[in-house]
Amino acid sequence: GLPAALPVLPLELTVLYNSLLCTVGASDSAIKEEAEGIRLGLLRVLEACGACGQDLGMEELWQKVLQEVTVEELQAPLHHLGALQAAWWLAASRLGSVAGLFQLLSTAEDPRRAHCSEGQNELLSIIKAWRVPPEGDSLPLVQSARDLKEIICTAAAFLQGLQELEAGNFPTALCLLQEAAGGFCSKKILAQIYTCLGCCTQRMGKPQTALQHLKRALQVDFQCFPALSHVAAAYHELGETDAEMQALTLLYEALGKNPPAAASSSPYFLMQTELLVHTPVLTSLLRHHHPSEVKYLLARRCLQDGRVADAVEHYLDFLSLLQEGLQQQVPLDGCSALPRMPEVFLEAASALEQAGRHQDAITVCEEVISQTTDLIPRVLQVEERLEQPECPLPGAGVAAGLLSQKKESLCCLAWRAAGYLQQGCSWAKLGESKEAVTQFSRCLSDLLRVQLHRSGVKQTENLQAEVELLQKIRLLSLIGRGMQFLELGRQKEALLDFQHSLQISPGDPAAASYLVQALWKLNRKQEAAAQWQKFCQGSPGENGQQQGQERPLPLYLVSCLEQAMFPHSEILARTIQDYLEAAAQDTS
Predict the structure, then answer these.
(1) Residue pLDDT, tens place only, 260-287
(2) DSSP string, 126-173
(3) Measured between alpha carbons, how far is residue 463 from residues 13, 266, 386, 505 in Å?
(4) Cβ distance 347 to 300 under 8 Å?
(5) Are 495 and 503 a contacting pair, CB within 8 Å?
(6) CB of 497 within 8 A of CB of 485?
(7) What stretch of H or E contains 362?
(8) Sign of the C-alpha dihedral computed for residues 182, 183, 184 and 189 taken in this order
(9) Which of 208-212, 272-276, 327-331, 383-387 has the highest mean pLDDT?
(10) How is residue 542 annotated by DSSP?
(11) Please, where are the H alpha helices in 273-340?
(12) 3-state secondary structure of 185
């Protein structure tokens, strides 16, 4: 409450500087709020000089103080406080305000300074141009302004590098992040910078260079687990599966040990780089995976690479984690690497089936079927778009909600149908053709719930992926059931299934081959030969092009697709060719 007096203002401003730094250091959390103490300090400076600035914003207030206050004893304390203000603005990503303030600090000292050379980053050049006031005769500071300047410069380079990385300007981001890596920071932040450098070079299509940066991050801070997950991603891009698996295994083991935080060998500062840089892109790049997520990634990659035994072990370990409460391990923030739980169960069933554990696969699928049964309506109507309305329809929000609900119902239907499909494949592998036919029929019966209607509402396009997936499951079920009908000697029923398969996917190689085989077994050899010729005379590459345009198949359906492949193409082709040659000789 005392009036401001020039003789004691240097002490006041220094106490304010030290107290703000101590407050920041004690909180040990990112700076988020404006420093109101700085504003009060500047107003007291103006009050002592016979001026006022109550109605000014912070930038205008700083401009007024630095331009009008010329008392020599106040210059060093004001510069110290200005650096602290720049740190606060930097934490709020107000880069323009930071640049303007350092421009004022430099020009107040020497109008010729703060010049940016061509090709240099403007903000960094302005910060570096600021001459820190000598501290020999000044009051003691809890953190020197010189150290604060170095931290601000490092944080500014890091923050701008992250912004350029997010914007896709990778060469610029690379230069700024390299500048930050050579700056003044703790080992923890240095490891984070190297991790971001690795992500940047990986997005530039340089996975080998990315690995060098990521390994450097781990050398600096062995607890920088996000770097290890990015290492696995880089090896995946390079196709080095063994190295990728090793990285994921190390990550899983490291996360499971949960070691205590290592003591930093860097000097302790109240204001640190980590308090100034906290952006969504950095949070995304440095997101810590939970052990269950890494375990799932291991299982999935093993299954994709054909390491079935390892995949089964990892999937079973993952499913056991469900008993420990998976929701407590993985945050529900939309960033998890885990898919929906029914898909995980279906992938596990696929791995078990490929490992020859057919009964276990059937049991896992039964869990999916039982859990989704009550979530599917009796009839699902999907409107087929005729034309898109030129203007938004009334009640668009309600329509979006209904569309989302319908999408969820289609997903549940796909999971349940896939469960029946996988059970049918497993029973077929066990040699139980009748039971396999039953499961395939249940799958097809489920898919009859979907009814396609023609409408002027644009919905099918939004549900295209779900509709295509259901059609693929239906195709595989028809082929699978037809195969079992052939095993049971019910060729006519098999023929109908293969004909329906070709209606769903004209030119499908497996369906066409099985259709020819069914006709041949029915002694309709002329029709079989005609169908074979029709299939072979299709436009070159037509079938491959059609498959290339399809969406990638979910991993849990890959084994069913492989099982539906026709295994005797060469024998069938030779048989048809012999028949055609014999028929030609008879004709001649």
Answers:
(1) 454 444 556 788 888 889 889 999 999 8
(2) HHHHPPPPP-SSSPP-SS-HHHHHHHHHHHHHHHHHHHHHHHT-HHHH
(3) 63, 54, 15, 19
(4) yes
(5) no
(6) yes
(7) helix 358-372
(8) negative
(9) 208-212
(10) H
(11) 280-285, 291-304, 308-322
(12) coil
The first and second tokens of residue 168, run together, are 């896709």
CA distance 196 to 349: 37
Sequence-separated (6 or more) residues with CB below 8 Å from residue 421 = 439, 440, 443, 473, 476, 477, 480, 557, 560
Distance CA 551, CA 234 (A): 24
Structure confidence at residue 162 as a pLDDT band (50, 70, 90): very high
According to the 3-state scheme, what is the secondary structure of 386-411? CCCCCCCCCCHHHHHHHHHHHHHHHH
Closest C-alpha to 127, from 147, 96, 110, 106: 106
| Cβ-count burial 430-447 (b if 16+ within 10 Å, e if not) | eebbebbbbbbebbbebb
* 3-state helix vs strand vs coil in the chain, percent to 5: 70, 0, 30
pTM as predicted: 0.83
Return d(Cα 71, Cα 131) in angstroms, integer.
Answer: 18
For residue 29 the two structure tokens come to 């959390």
Residue with tokens 């036919």: 437
Map residue 195 onto helix, strand or coil: helix
Separation CA 553–CA 23 (nearest Å):
55
Residue ranges of domains in the chain, CATH in brackets? 1-109+118-132 (no CATH), 143-259+268-289 (1.25.40.10)
Task: Give the Cβ contact number of residue 208 at 10 Å.
Answer: 11
Read off the amino acid at residue 381. Answer: Q
How far the first Cα of the chain sits from its last, in Å, is 120
